[in-house]
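Colleagues,

Please find the record for the two-part complex below.
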Amino acid sequence: MPITAEFEYVKPKDMDEALHVFSLYREKARALAGGTDLVVHLKEGLARPDVVVDIKALPELAGLSLKGDTLRLGALVTFSDLIESPVIKSKFPLLLEAALTVASTGVRNRATLAGNICSAVPSADSAPALAVYDAEVLVRSIRGERRVPMAEWFTGPKKTALAPDELVTAVELRLPEKKHAGCYMKLSRYEGEDLAQGGVAALVFADNTYRVAVCALGPKPVRCSATEAVLNGAKLGDKALAKAKEAILREVSPISDIRSSKEYRLHMTQVMLGRALETAVARLFGKGPKYGSENIA
Amino acid sequence: MKAHRINFTLNGEKVSLEVEPNDVLLDTLRGRLGIKSPKVGCDRGDCGTCTVLMNGRTVRSCLALAVEADGADLVTLEGAGTRKWTKRLQAKFHEKNAFQCGFCAPGVILSATELLEKNPKASQHDIKEAIAGNLCRCTGYEPIVEAIAETAKGK
């Protein structure tokens, strides 16, 4: 299907030049990285930019690096980059597990993590993992640079805290100091390529503290702090789990749509929370399935 | 709109042409370059029939702008002869009758090419995962997975 809308295409090699375009055109400029969402939106008329800014020649946006305890994921880092990175596998395996659930190889080869959180669909698979790792989004404009914590990033379905003249340059994650393990549990209609009916990420620490975040179970991906508060300090057993399953129902607000009913999602929220926490605990003790393996269900 | 001159390699041959900013790579390949193996399927990245190799990696040509191909090395099934695994897979698909209508086959073979180039010892799970984004409505996938597995084993 051809794109009927008309726009100009620029591919700046210089960051200032790129930021000037965004400053000048604002809502009428759209950043192009992998294009896996943008091109669909261009075809369907959901995006009507005057100018498409291809950001793939901006060196500042490239690369994945761990310095000290800070992981920097440049805005051009694709899901395949994450999956193939030894650093992600050894230090941030929860992110690997989430990345493996995103679409399919042909999409992951182009789709970027930054693009995923900029599209900001409620089912963004990378969002719960980023939330439990306390990620921050680095954004720049000609006005300067700022950091947005994940908790403030999503403002609604397909809406973010990004201003019209701003560009995401990177996402930064802090490696937790304490011993920990995680799990991302994604519910979909079939194995393979599908959007999440619901997703739960859990990070469990050796000192019995917990982090939980979800996607596709409300208008935006969220961290579940009340559920965490119920769990914190307790060893994960039937009692703590039962309380947590009660608590999480007050933190999600799923809808019924083509992928599942609200009632099914509410039920599965509890099931997924249990399985994610139990899997994470097992991994903490060197047991449980390998990250990203086919056996988590 | 301002047209852009782009230069890239297509199946080992140099190509230079002018494209509009809103030209989609898939449409340019099929409509202007006579490359018909990538098909128009869902046209939104879900079905995998438009798969091409860009710099050795599978991409959805329905989701790439033609102008983005500037400087790239593109391979489609027409260029099977330029890649070891593609050629072997193609032969094995013929031998095993691993497709029926054939609409998905070019995409499947290129996805399998990327997999085997990265990991010639791919497991059954790796194979299924690699072609998860290539929908086939005829075969039920069994002969496809078998053909890829046998190609990997050099049978």
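The domain at 4-78 of chain B is CATH 3.10.20.30 (Ubiquitin-like (UB roll)).

Comments are welcome before we finalize the supplementary table.
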